[in-house]
Amino acid sequence: MNRLIKYVGLCVVALVLSVAGGSCRISYKFNGAALDYNLYRTIHVANFPIRAALVYAPLQQTFENELLDYIARNTRLQTVDGPSDLTLEGEITQYYLTPQAVTEDAYASRTRLTIGVRVKYTDNKAEGKDVDQTFTAYRDFDSSQMLNEVEEQLSQEISKELVQLIFNATLGNW
């Protein structure tokens, strides 16, 4: 019993000292953002033009909106036009279909839509944190469906996945 009282007493003292002193602080960020908001306040997100051979015109707006919304929901950064602490720019470089799961009669039973985005992330406050990388994601769909039947939904799903990959590699600092 005496040991238990000593242990509880030590825990209480440690807790009081950590709260009173303020020198030790545990911080958890569940959104994945690893930003020092005393240093980083603004971000410029440039347009992401489509440079792929096959073009789905609404993709640019879908992707850009998803990226801006995700940043707004998961950080406290203010989006600005012009000079900023951080910059995200790039282009949609890949948009293509490939046959998958070829059947015995040499027809594809599934088709894969792949989208690739080249991203250049620039940290204007710290050296060595820049990223220049291409991110790709895909979705498969039944080959009995026409692309224009599933294109909007698949583009939205793929854009969400790409935005998460980009966020984790840049602002999330994973």
Report a brief summary of the structure:
The chain is of the alpha/beta class and 174 residues long. It is built from 3 helices and 5 strands, in the order αβαββββα.
Structure notes:
This protein is α/β, with parallel strands linked by helices and 174 residues long. The protein has a single domain, classed as Lipoprotein like domain (Double Stranded RNA Binding Domain), CATH 3.30.160.150. The chain has three helices and five strands; from the N terminus they run αβαββββα. The chain has a five-stranded mixed β-sheet, covered by helices on one side. β4 (108-123) and β5 (131-142) form a beta hairpin. The model is unreliable at 12-31 (pLDDT under 50).
- Kindly identify the CATH topology: Double Stranded RNA Binding Domain
| Distinct helical segment count | 3
DSSP E strands, number:
5
User: What is the makeup of the main sheet?
Assistant: 5 strands, mixed
CA-atom Rg in angstroms: 23 Å
SSE order: HEHEEEEH
